[in-house]
């Protein structure tokens, strides 16, 4: 039996066959500092409770988001990614979110074409006053992530 | 027409207007052609043009080749209609101006890749190249396209169920050996330090395993959005026969549908990803 065959057998034997009962979705949220982050902060200071699976990556503006960041999050183990920023017209830097919006339009299509599960990628506009929207959004995204299960399809790609 | 091309090249070199003519010459067999760098009027007979001249030679004009360009005062480049579009793209990105080069457009009725006609030739609107300094040969002048539609093959791919698409591209990207031929052959892949070569931080895994291959191919496709002119050289050059042109065709259609833009038509136009409209579509954003 060749090394390649043995390796393939080991990989098959260690492939997770079912989601462990205590599995929690890992969600990465790329948010802008001025709107969404403050909105999340408002949810916090108002003591609103919501599911704790989101890890926030705070950037100055959604315009800073290179689509590569989203891919890297998935590569490193994220099951779902959320991208959120200021509403169009409200960008702290005037036009960052307008450029981001165009990039996302293109990037979604690219990921979709290659068969990415687009149910795992969410986009939203959340303003600094929308603490409640943030809570509802996170709860909804987390529930959906839980239903979808771990992103094994991508995480099991060879490294 | 080859004679007219050779005469023009001879004239440009003899008059001293250019010091090199970058064109096509015969290669190792009947159908192989290779880029030729003609620096002397006595060598212009090496220049040929026929349906086997599929290379896009404008790549030599981008900033990746600045060391090569430093050897020339002013180059002339033989371009088909499609190649001229990538020159337009490079001009839009201020890599050179029309005064820095001489673009010799050649009338082209389509190239043949392994005997087949590629999609770009089936829908060609530039049999007579546009935005060039000279045009050699005769062909029908067509209305330049204002919208772009991907090939039936690309559309069929987009219509497949998600799991099938993923399985297809998983199998394809697994073959990638990270030779970067796709990058080398693309005139618009002109970054002097490609994102794939960055190591502080390392964004794209360099080994030819699936994770890095997905990352590389998706990043390259994304960096070409709004810039790719659909010459298909990437797919032709890929030694693993990955149909990269399907992805780029799909993105060309996305850009046409979403941003009302087709790359390579107008050197004055602003590329779609550096502009925006206040009412750009956002139904996917909650």
Structure explained in plain terms:
The complex is a heterodimer of chains A (159) and B (286). Chain A is of the alpha/beta class and 159 residues long. Chain A has six helices and four strands, in the order αβαβαβαβαα. In chain A, helix 2 (36-45) links the parallel strand 1 (27-32) and strand 2 (54-59). With 286 residues, chain B is of the alpha/beta class. Chain B is built from ten helices and six strands, in the order αβββαβαβαβαααααα. In chain B, strands 1, 2, 3, 4, 5 and 6 form a six-stranded mixed β-sheet that branches. In chain B, helix 5 packs across helix 10 (244-259). The termini of chain B are far apart. The A-B interface holds A 67-68, 71-72, 75, 88-89, 95, 98-99, 101-118, 122-125, 137, 153, 157-159 and B 157-158, 162-170, 174, 195, 203-205, 207, 209-212, 214-215, 218-219, 221-222, 225-226, 247, 250-251, 254-255, 258-259, 272-276, 278, 280-282, 284-286.
What share of the residues of chain B does DSSP label as strand, in percent? 5-15%
For the largest sheet of chain A, list the strands in their spatial order. Answer: 2-1-3-4
User: Distance N terminus to C terminus of chain A?
Assistant: 23 Å
Q: What gap, in angstroms, lies between the N and C termini of chain B?
A: 58 Å
**Mean pLDDT score of chain B:** 95
Radius of gyration of chain A, in angstroms, nearest whole number: 18 Å
Major sheet description of chain A: 4 strands, parallel
Strand content range of chain A: 5-15%
| Morphology of chain A | globular
- Low-confidence segments of chain A, given as residue ranges, are none
Report the sheet with the most strands of chain B, covering strand number, pairing sense and barrel closure: 6 strands, mixed
Rg of chain B to the nearest angstrom? 19 Å
Report the structural category of chain B.
Answer: alpha/beta
**Could you tell me the number of beta strands of chain A?**
4
Low-confidence stretches of chain B: none
């Amino acid at each position: 039996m060749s090394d390649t065959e043995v390796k393939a057998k080991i990989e098959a034997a260690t492939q997770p066959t079912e989601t462990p009962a205590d599995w929690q979705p890992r969600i990465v949220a790329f948010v802008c500092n001025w709107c969404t982050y403050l909105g999340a902060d408002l949810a916090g200071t108002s003591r609103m409770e919501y599911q704790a699976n989101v890890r926030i990556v705070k950037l100055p503006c959604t315009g800073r988001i290179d689509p590569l960041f989203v891919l890297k999050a998935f590569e490193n183990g994220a099951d779902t990614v959320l991208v959120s920023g200021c509403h169009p017209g409200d960008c702290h830097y005037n036009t960052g979110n307008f450029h981001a919006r165009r990039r996302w339009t293109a990037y979604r299509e690219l990921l979709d074409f290659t068969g990415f599960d687009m149910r795992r990628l969410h986009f939203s506009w959340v303003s600094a006053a929308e603490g409640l929207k943030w809570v509802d959004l996170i709860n909804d995204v987390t529930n959906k992530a839980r239903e979808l299960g771990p992103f094994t399809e991508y995480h099991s790609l060879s490294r | 027409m080859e004679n007219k091309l050779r005469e023009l090249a001879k004239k440009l070199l003899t008059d001293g207007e250019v010091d090199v003519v970058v064109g096509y010459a015969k290669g190792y067999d009947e159908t192989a052609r290779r880029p030729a760098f003609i620096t002397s009027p006595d060598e212009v007979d090496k220049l040929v043009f026929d349906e086997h001249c599929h290379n896009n030679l404008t790549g030599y004009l981008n900033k990746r080749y600045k060391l090569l360009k430093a050897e020339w005062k002013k180059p002339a480049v033989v371009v088909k209609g499609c190649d001229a579009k990538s020159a337009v793209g490079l001009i839009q990105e201020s890599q050179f101006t029309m005064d820095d080069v001489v673009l010799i457009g050649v009338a082209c009725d389509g190239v043949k890749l392994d005997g087949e006609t590629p999609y770009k030739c089936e829908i060609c609107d530039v049999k007579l190249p546009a935005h060039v300094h000279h045009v050699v040969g005769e062909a029908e002048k067509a209305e330049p396209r204002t919208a772009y539609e991907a090939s039936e093959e690309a559309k069929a791919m987009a219509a497949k169920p998600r799991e099938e698409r993923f399985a297809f591209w998983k199998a394809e990207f697994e073959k990638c050996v990270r030779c970067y031929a796709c990058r080398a052959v693309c005139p618009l892949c002109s970054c002097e330090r490609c994102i794939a070569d960055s190591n502080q931080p390392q964004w794209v895994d360099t080994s030819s395993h699936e994770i890095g291959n997905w990352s590389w191919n998706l990043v390259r496709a994304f960096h070409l959005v709004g810039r790719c002119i659909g010459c298909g050289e990437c797919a032709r050059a890929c030694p693993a026969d990955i149909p990269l042109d399907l992805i780029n065709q799909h993105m060309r259609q996305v850009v046409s549908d979403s941003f009302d833009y087709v790359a390579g038509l107008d050197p004055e136009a602003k590329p779609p990803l550096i502009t925006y409209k206040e009412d750009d579509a956002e139904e996917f954003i909650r």
